[in-house]
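Minutes, project check-in
Item: structure for the 207-residue chain
Input as provided by the requester:
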Amino acid sequence: MKFQYFASLALLALTTTAFADEFYVMGQVTHSSATLDRSHFDNVLTANGASGLSSSDDGNSNQWRLQGGYRFNQYFAVEGGYIDFGEAKYKADYNGGSSQGSLKAGGADVAALLSLPLSDSFSVFGKAGVVVANVKSSLSAGAPASLASGKASTNDVLPLLGVGAILKVTQNVDLRADYDHVSGLGDAQKTGKMDDNMFSLGVVYNF
């Protein structure tokens, strides 16, 4: 009886150690590469008198993200937090004037992570979740398309997909790299739309 008792305790201890659950927080710096659908801004300008229009966009920006999560075991975790998706800038030249605009987004996310440990200190993961994003657009145009100036916003609920890697530095501290993708931020008629690719690097603290 005593042997079975201690054997059961030993098994419980080993199971708890091998599949330890824990809370964690993460802070990351993020580089976003966004692809802007310029047709919305182009159409607004041409509808307000711009002719001979030539436009371009730049979706590269740097920002941040904060996440908190719960790791059920070494293979599965759930996390959520805030993501700044960055800003895509718009620029147009036309006969007699020019215009500048932007589309920026940020919001809350919830995602599930499936991890594959490759060693005691290194693992890779896939991620799937949803984001609730607020998207804002602005356009400032000079004559003859001055009536096109204005601002608009919309809210989206969209899927988030990603992959990444985790390197354990100490018992409590990890280094983590993420790649995430979100498609269709914004509204084609109201704000314009963009797709966002995010590359993030940061630190995880395990409690």
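Outcome recorded: The longest strand covers residues 97-117.
No further action items on this chain.
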